[in-house]
């Protein structure tokens, strides 16, 4: 197995990577809304670092998963969100920074106007053909207007 980063040969290759990252975010959103920590955390690298909305740093998959299980079964058990990708910037072909807006929703998926949302940044790495969250931070923001809605 080579550690050599992938080289993009065309715009189509780059678009495939963008689509794969967007699909990962869709799966993360679905797992959050199902309150399924194991499904959510399958998208995190084993050595990931995560800083949650209250500023707690979690290190490694196990600690992230234990924390997600506790909060998704506890204080966030009735919380739902819609994730939108604001930007994807490739640092190199196998590393990307992704900004994600998270809007609070009802269990039916309707955005809660003036609800407390957040803005997250994910540092994603492509490992064995799969995009994973290697690091991230989630920050609370008050205003949660969605353009076009």
Automatic annotation (TrEMBL):
The UniProt entry, under InterPro entries, shows:
DUF4440, NTF2-like_dom_sf, Steroid_delta5-4_isomerase
Recorded hits in Gene3D superfamilies, A to Z, give: 3.10.450.50
Q: Which Pfam families match?
A: DUF4440
Q: Specify the superkingdom.
A: Bacteria
Q: Which residues form the DUF4440 domain?
A: 21-133
The protein depicted here goes by the name DUF4440 domain-containing protein
């Amino acid at each position: 197995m080579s550690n050599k980063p992938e080289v993009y040969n065309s715009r189509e290759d780059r678009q495939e990577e963008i689509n794969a990252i967007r699909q990962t975010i869709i799966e993360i959103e679905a797992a959050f809304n199902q309150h399924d920590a194991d499904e959510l955390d399958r998208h995190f690298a084993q050595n990931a670092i995560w800083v949650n909305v209250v500023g707690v740093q979690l290190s490694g998959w196990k600690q992230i998963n234990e924390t997600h299980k506790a909060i998704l079964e506890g204080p966030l058990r009735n919380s739902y969100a819609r994730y939108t990708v604001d930007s994807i910037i490739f640092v190199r072909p196998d590393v990307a920074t992704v900004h994600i807006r998270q809007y609070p929703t009802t269990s039916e998926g309707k955005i809660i106007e003036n609800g407390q949302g957040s803005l997250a940044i994910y540092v994603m790495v492509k490992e064995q053909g799969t995009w994973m969250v290697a690091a991230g931070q989630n920050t609370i923001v008050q205003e949660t207007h969605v353009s076009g809605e």
